[in-house]
Amino acid sequence: MSSALYALGRWAARAKWFVLTIWLVLLALLATGALTLGKGADAPITIPGTEAQDAITSLSHTFPEVSGTSATIVVVAPEGADPEADPYRSAVLAAADDLDPLPGVTGVLTPFGTGAEAAANTEISPDGRALLMRVQIEGEMTSVDAQTSEGIAAATDALRDRLPEDAEVAYGGEMFSAAVPGLSPTEAIGVVVAFVVLILTLGSLIAAGMPLIIALIGVGVSIAGLFFVTAFVDLTSTTPMLALMLGLAVGIDYTLFIVSRHQEQLRAGLGVRESIARATATSGSAVVFAGLTVIIALVGLAVARIPFLTALGVAAAAAVAVAVLIAVTLTPAVLSMAGMRILPKRHRPKQAPAADPAPANGAPVAPQQTRADRFFASWVRGATKRPIVTILAVLIALGVGAIPALQLRLALPDATSLAVDDPARVTHELTGEHFGEGFNAPLLLTGSIISSTDPLGLMDDLKREVEQIPGVAEVPLATPNQGADTGIIQVIPEEGAHAASTTELVNELRSHHDEWEDRYGVSLAVTGFTAVGIDVSAQLMTALLPFGIFVVGLSLVLLAMVFRSVWVPIKATLGYLLSVGVAFGAVVAVFQWGWLSEVLQVSSTGPVLSFMPIILMGVLFGLAMDYEVFLVARMREEYVHGGDAQRAIHRGFIGSAKVVTAAALIMIAVFAAFVPAGDPSIKVIALGLAVGVFVDAFIVRMTLVPAVLALLGDRAWQMPRWLAKLLPSFDVEGEGLARELAHAEWPADMPGARIASERLTLRGADRSLVVADLRLRAGEALVLDPRDQASLPLARVLSGRGRVVAGTLKVDGLLLPERASSLRARSAWADPGALRQALRDRPALLVLDLRDAELTPLQPATVSDARSALAAWQVERGAAGGAGATSAAPPVLVVLGARAAAEALLPEGCVAATAPGSRPASAATHEAATDPTDRHELEGAR
């Protein structure tokens, strides 16, 4: 990974204007597509497959009059006035006439209708002061025509004008219960705070502005892409806001990590272009890994099997992916444009270096001590001086902070989450005050009655049954549709949608399904806006456990891959769980208990957004892994390069704490900016993330983690051998890159060697084998004698298909094992019969397997054809710079077979070079070689 990013960083630095143009063109294309084809993100929150959702879908075909959404107009007369008399009666009927012709309106019900419609869904309040008008509208609340919503508001204003001044009139209901999120000036404050933090961290306006500009371009690409995608996929209104919040936060942080490392290296005297490449390789590796953890966690929301949540997770993951891509491509390009101006003036050399100096050994560049470094040195000394005391103090404090999470209650947002002066909020409160909270949470029972011979009598019987259920306030409507094939029963609960008794009522009604089906032959389903919300919350709560297991398991595996350790992943995962617990606790304290509600502009308290926990867990997991990687990777880097365990903790902490602190402060600022004036759906997530990031970065990662590592000592970096063999390695510290840089001009005795090795140790059939040093010149073919037990393992290693246990090996300019995948991609393995097919892709290296020729000699025609194919291949690849050469690098030919058979096949001018023999490794070397995870010990052995 680090090697590939090193090459990418160098290329982007050279092709800086091309890279910038590509991103700007992409932004323009996606923005054009979004403006011309995008339909907007306004899909409803639904879960297909639940009883309530399936019933609503069925009603849209059988009983469309009650299947869509609805609006409510409430009229409250002053004390002593009669809302059933004029002017109230005439004004309400006139308003009904205004509402009836609006697009999508299927019916307007008032207390003054006739027949079954009269007072069916609407009535005078028990206190005799209020009346309700209900407007039934086809389609979902997010698909209602703007002309309809504007017409309802205008009709309400006209109704208010016709009534006495002291009468109250408001409109709301299900259709207006959720607001479309939008940006507010408060979000800009987060960006300003981020800019201030960047100035303090990087010390330069140019350096501080760079992460912001790059992040904004990335966010622009993400959001434009999301709105373009709405032409083909339905997205909820929360989706682009979450993508914006995450994309902005991680985009700034990821660029900051690379820019900070680049500044460090420039101060130490590294050349601009070399520093850009190394910063992209080291910090960029950590950025890629951190981004992958966030992406996997967000895509992992699909574990819940809820379509809108899966779409939300994929969209947010796409925004993070764009942030990663732009960080490792556009950042090197812009850094190249800035040159030495990326440093504060006081740190710039008076004369820029003429070349790109690089330490010969490729080791990390040592940073200069600053005042901030001294502060963080005191911090880490305090955290690790008495590690047990630190660990206990942190665990107790975070445990207390997580206690409120035990009372977490979930629900979908309703009108109570809107601003106090919002008409829908006013309507909701007036309805609850005069009619009872249950009128804001009506339920519907529906089922097919096509087999009934007395539909009206059947609905009356069912109504009487429902009225006997505890928790039912009243049953105002029980009627069949016009075709008498579907019946509905409207049920008013005693309490509101968020009350536990309403959830119990839904469950109680469903528990009578079999009884009523046996007695009346009707299969009734409970549905309605309230029932849908209860089903969504229940399924999301059920999904928390499998998702939590997925996230915890993922963190253990990923961190074990990165740190080649058992203890580091365990303590990192436990720390993440503590951060999540405190974040949940803060959400409960603010949104359920009302703490700081005025300061944070929380309009009402009650159950929190039902999909908040699973989103917060996914996002916070990724961010927690960010800080774990950037902090602990630097400690392991120090440990791998020779530091003892305690010194590595201190040096690694000092080297990374400043940038981790800045990154966390930026995250907190961006998230917190969405809290005061944010949309209710985003506000609760933003607060949880802000608290979670604060706890995870400063208390868990920067206090608890150093203390735990200090307590563990060398054991922190150990892993069982069987597990090390099972898990792939992910080099985020740039360890492999350091080796590549150190061996860039190796071997000194033959700089142009096509194959070179030194003290190479390979895995044999029963033990490790040491191969004598190799040197293969251009124009030579390496012949491996099959009788040597090291020949087959060596051939596999030389083609990128085997594993180097220890030592140094370079093939076709690629250092192994770091570039094994690149070598494998450009190599081929074939016997003479399949030679021409293997050479069609013009590989850079070929292993010609002649082991079968020992038993069955090759025919003259086969030998001639093989010689011809090999000659053509070498000419095409530019063998030895001969005539017709198309490449400056000649190909590499390795023959696994007897020397006589090999010489018979080699084309003219190609010399057979016999590989030197091998010997068994010593017991000590074999023991070290069998533990590939202990890179610290292995480097010493080398």
Describe the structure.
The structure is a single chain. This protein has 942 residues and is an alpha+beta fold. It has 3 domains: 2-38 and 182-381 and 536-717, Multidrug efflux transporter AcrB transmembrane fold, CATH 1.20.1640; 58-178 and 430-529, Alpha-Beta Plaits, CATH 3.30.70; 745-941, P-loop containing nucleotide triphosphate hydrolases (Rossmann fold), CATH 3.40.50. 54% of the residues lie in helices and 11% in strands. It is built from 31 helices and 21 strands. Strands 11, 12, 13, 15, 16 and 21 form a 6-stranded antiparallel sheet that branches. The relative contact order is 0.09.
Topology:
Blueprint: H1 2-14, H2 16-37, H3 51-62, H4 64-67, E1 69-76, H5 88-99, E2 105-109, E3 130-137, H6 146-162, E4 168-172, H7 185-202, H8 205-229, H9 238-267, H10 272-299, H11 307-338, H12 371-385, H13 387-401, E5 410-411, H14 423-435, E6 443-448, H15 455-467, E7 472-480, E8 486-493, H16 500-511, H17 513-520, E9 525-527, H18 529-563, H19 567-592, E10 608-609, H20 612-640, H21 645-672, H22 680-712, H23 721-726, H24 735-742, E11 755-763, E12 768-771, E13 775-776, E14 780-784, H25 791-798, E15 804-811, E16 814-816, H26 820-825, E17 827-830, H27 835-838, E18 845-849, H28 860-876, E19 892-896, H29 899-905, E20 911-914, E21 918-920, H30 923-929, H31 935-941
Parallel strand pairs: 5-10, 14-19, 14-20, 17-18, 18-19
Antiparallel strand pairs: 1-3, 1-4, 2-3, 6-8, 6-9, 7-8, 11-12, 11-13, 11-15, 12-21, 15-16
Separate helix tally: 31
The average pLDDT is 82
CATH class of the largest domain, anyone?
Mainly Alpha
Task: Provide the gyration radius in Å.
Answer: 35 Å
CATH architecture of the largest domain: Up-down Bundle
